[in-house]
Protein 1
Amino acid sequence: MVGSLSSWEYARQMFVACRFVALASLLIASAASAAEPEPSERDRNIARESVYQGDDFTKRGDFKRALEAYRRANDIMQVPTTAIEVVRASLKLGLLVEALAACEQTAAFPQQSGERAPFTAARNEALKLMTELHARIPQLSIAVRTPTDVEPQVVVDGKALQPYAQSTQNPGHHIVDASAPGLVSAHDEFDLIEGQTKRVELVLTPAVTAAAATKSGGTYWPLAFSGLGLALAGVATGSVTGMLSLNAANELSQVCRPDASCPPNLGLESTIDRRNTFATVATIAFAAAGVGAVVGLPSLIVSVRAKKDAPREGLAIGPLFDSAGKPVLGASITVW
């Protein structure tokens, strides 16, 4: 019997406590409602004029200024009829996310007994649009991969997004940047269309790794410059001495036999020596140019790729001359 009475007493106390909490909540709500005074006559006039301005801008097709005017009026009045104008102007500008937020505000206004028909119509229009907008608004999913547990900062269209994993965005062009201390930031740009669901994955890499890669690539620059310098010098020297060797060979061809043997006692020894010397120098110069190209070009390519640029030009081995001072058939200088 005592246990039974104790249970009943406990239940009674809980009922009293619940009623007290409910009454306190009602009082708090009433106080909060009373704390928000009705707009003054001056504010009402400002809101009314803002609506007129919004209507005028809408007729002119200036929906951006119309939206500003309707928002100004809605901030004062906070009624379904001003909120639905914000919805309509936002839709004209393609601001689906903002339009949905305004729809939710319009639909959230409590229905009053005997309220005016425009209030009810605005609320019903907002409820209908909410279903349509949920299907039209693009969904964006962002994943950021980092080598550490650091929390990245994600910025979409210049505004920080937190949380960033899932968000709704308006159709159109968007820019996403992700960054974190000590890591190289990542960037992506894309376009969204209505109803699209897009996933973006950004990878943040250690800044030290990037610096090391740049330094590693940079160590080949001296070798590239040395090799290409040797190649250019060899081509220049070989071209000049080759031409001199050809001139000497032409002089000899006028008095010597077809088998390259020359009559004695004509004083042609110096010309023959000159032809052979220049031909040898030309061959050595072009061989040096080939070595320089073989060393310099790969070094240049590796160094440029380290900076994420493609090589723009190169140089092939030039023509070689034989011992008679004649150019080797099929040899050429190629620049690309």
Protein 2
Amino acid sequence: MLGKTLPDLTVESSSGKSVNLKDLKGHKTILYFYPKDNTPGCTIQGNEFNSFLKEFEKLNTVIYGISRDNLKSHDKFIQQCNFKFELLADTDEKLCQFFDVIKEKNMYGKTVMGVERSTFIIDENAKIIGEYRKVKAEGHAALMLEVIKQS
């Protein structure tokens, strides 16, 4: 994925606006994919990104969390956790497919297809400059902040 330019893909945002990936220019962007709203790991990850949000903003970096959940689920998750950044609803899996984050997972002895926790850093020209797969939720936002500081 490194070096690729973002495609012309539009998804709905928790802000009520549509977000087109090719329009993510003029600032750095972190797109973090997570499996499911309101689950323990996803809550930890979201809360950590939220806690560093002001620092990311000082570095001209926008955060978007992405899952296959719908906007209603995202709204509930945002209200429950008081997130100050937007969540994108990839209900048709267009973004998941482009970023290749749908993977075979083992859940309670059953094989299912689910979102592999992954993060991508996008530069000011909508080009992918960072790719992180099989991410651990705890501590990941702090790591991404350090990467952004050094980029």
Protein 3
Amino acid sequence: MKLLYDFFPILLFFIAYKMYDIYVATAVAIAAAAVQTAGFWIKHRRFEKMHLVTFGLLAVFGGLTIFLHDPLFIKWKPTVINWLFAVVFMGSHWVSDKLLIERMMGHAIQAPRPVWVRLSWAWILFFIGIGLLNLYVAFNFSEETWVNFKLFGMLGITFAFVIGQAFYLGRYMEQENSGEES
């Protein structure tokens, strides 16, 4: 359910694009992100940082797309968000004793520092790569192909990356458990 809630603006963007055009889809995505952010606050009495960042960037880049009637801005938004995440993950290497990935997953997984460092760098490279891939698709393929990639391609690649990460952690945890039983 949380996955659907988090991807709600992207899904509505896709539907609106298929029914109308990039400008209506962009307006729908901005409104959906506003509803998403407000809904989370109403339910939890706090804001989710990811929703705020996404809404803010969507409002800026989407607003420019609508105001200037130029889809270039909305096409840059996924790249900017992913590169911002890469910077935040990278920054956690220097500003804190605990890496961001460890803060996010450390409650569920106990692993030594080198594992967290590898995972962190994997996420950093992933965010940089998916941002570059978004630009490649946005500037080398049709607008419709980019919209399809934005929903299905980016989601599929992210899902595959998370599954790969789970296998990496699962393999590590199995070694940890077998070492403890000996």
Protein 4
Amino acid sequence: MAAAAAHPRNQAWWELMQPMQEPLESCAEGEWWADMEELVHTE
């Protein structure tokens, strides 16, 4: 994962996408990811 994060193309993609992302209202202050309810479970 660290190697992928360091790749210049990934860095460019994240820089491009960052302004398009907003945390959900249910997120705590400073929290980026939110837990979601599992809708479908397959094994």
